[in-house]
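Please decode residue identities from the backbone states below.
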């Protein structure tokens, strides 16, 4: 791989242990890895990028998504529904999902994330219509074409309506089929090496859509291979009521009973935890993928992020699905999350810069990655660039680390780089034709409405 030298950066926001913001520094990339961050670097073999007007940030890490939901964005009939009714309406559309639809939706969802600075992306896919094969494979195919790091989860639903669950019976699968496909995907795609582009997570959907057997067996399988576990948890008051009435315990208590706590586990949302449960999360190192915009749209509630962080509960940031957001813009989550916590917690809320760190280092932590999340020697060269001379950021030069949270970065970034390779620059993707995938998604979307 070629060498790349960033020269005289306006600012490098490192998000390192010292929270350094480096002004006028150079950054050298070799074989996809950062090898030096100093002033006055020289390398005659490197491609030079003049960064004197650019703010450089670590690539954002998205920790919860549902790519397929791109196909059901902006639907007027569901804009006032809350989670359970919202899901019931959408299940009737999602049951017609095909692998070609998912491939197009995955490309659009990831491309939108890349436009707004994301370089590592997690997707939680759990909708497997009967007869559709290799859906997760199509996601990895899209990620390889675009050039992003993908942590794809093999989700599942095994508890249909006829057995007290929420999804239609034709969208649930047998435990043996789920586990067999999960193991196939782990063997084929999971890479635990430094700089890995593909990893697999096991992710039964939620307490109201899977049974105890699949929870227990998924945990055992994941730990056999040393991979992460993920599910929705404590997202709504309705879910808490369901767990108490149907499972005999609150959501976290149920998770503990099926071996679903620990540093290898992270939950999406995590809004309805009480004080004792926060303590248990801290003690076990169990993580939370925080989805502020989705939580607001579905009127679910405000997660206790301002209390979690001082307790060292691992927290990452996420856009959630494109039907509950309805976008894939992690920079927007930084500002919304910061402002929502300010509203709820006032001076006890995390700073704007701390929310940037949730979206970078926090995400890397809950995905189990030590090679991404900050700009440091030895880390992967994943970063995004913002033109500091835009009218949007006039007067902000003293503290670029706070810009994503305070002013918001409300336009596509100037450039996004993964492993030292530019995959998006000045409005253009380097590996795909954006218009082609937009057209495909629009056509497929009409089929599901």
């Amino acid at each position: 791989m070629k060498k790349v030298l960033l020269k005289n950066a306006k600012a490098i926001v490192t998000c390192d242990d010292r929270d350094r913001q480096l002004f006028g520094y150079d950054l050298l990339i070799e074989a996809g890895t950062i090898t030096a961050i100093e002033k006055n670097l020289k390398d005659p073999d490197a491609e030079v990028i003049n960064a004197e007007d650019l703010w450089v940030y670590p690539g954002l890490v998205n920790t919860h998504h549902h790519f397929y939901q791109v196909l059901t964005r902006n639907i007027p009939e569901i804009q006032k529904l809350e989670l359970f009714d919202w899901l019931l309406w959408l299940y009737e559309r999602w049951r017609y999902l095909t692998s070609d639809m998912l491939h197009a939706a995955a490309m659009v969802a990831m491309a939108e994330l890349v436009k707004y600075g994301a370089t590592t992306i997690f997707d939680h896919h759990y909708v497997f219509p009967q007869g559709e094969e290799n859906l997760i494979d199509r996601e990895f195919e899209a990620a390889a074409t675009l050039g992003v790091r993908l942590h794809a989860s093999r989700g599942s639903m095994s508890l249909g309506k006829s057995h007290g669950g929420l999804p239609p019976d034709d969208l649930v699968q047998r435990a043996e089929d789920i586990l067999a496909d999960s193991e196939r995907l782990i063997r084929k795609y999971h890479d635990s090496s430094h700089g890995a582009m593909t990893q697999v997570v096991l992710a039964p959907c939620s307490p109201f859509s899977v049974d105890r057997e699949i929870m227990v067996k998924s945990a055992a399988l994941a730990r056999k291979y040393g991979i992460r576990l993920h599910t929705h948890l404590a997202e709504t008051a309705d879910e808490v009521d369901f767990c108490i009435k149907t499972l005999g315990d609150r959501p976290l208590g149920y998770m503990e009973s099926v071996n679903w706590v620990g540093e290898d586990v992270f939950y999406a949302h995590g809004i309805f935890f009480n004080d004792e449960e926060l303590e248990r999360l801290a003690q076990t190192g169990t993580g939370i993928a925080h989805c502020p915009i989705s939580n607001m749209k579905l009127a679910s509630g405000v997660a206790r992020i301002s209390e979690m962080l001082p307790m060292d509960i691992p927290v990452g940031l996420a856009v959630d699905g494109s039907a509950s957001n309805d976008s894939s813009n992690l920079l927007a989550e930084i500002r919304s999350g910061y402002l929502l916590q300010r509203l709820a917690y006032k001076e006890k809320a995390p700073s704007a810069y701390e929310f940037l760190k949730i979206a970078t280092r926090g995400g890397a932590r809950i995905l189990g990655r030590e090679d991404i999340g900050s700009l440091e020697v030895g880390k992967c060269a994943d970063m995004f660039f913002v033109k500091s001379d835009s009218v949007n950021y006039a007067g902000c030069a003293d503290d670029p680390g706070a810009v994503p949270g305070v002013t918001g970065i409300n336009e596509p970034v100037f450039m996004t780089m993964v492993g030292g390779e530019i995959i998006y620059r000045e409005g253009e993707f380097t590996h795909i034709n954006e218009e082609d995938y937009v057209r495909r998604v629009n056509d497929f979307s009409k089929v599901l409405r």
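Observation: The chain is about 35% helix and 20% strand.
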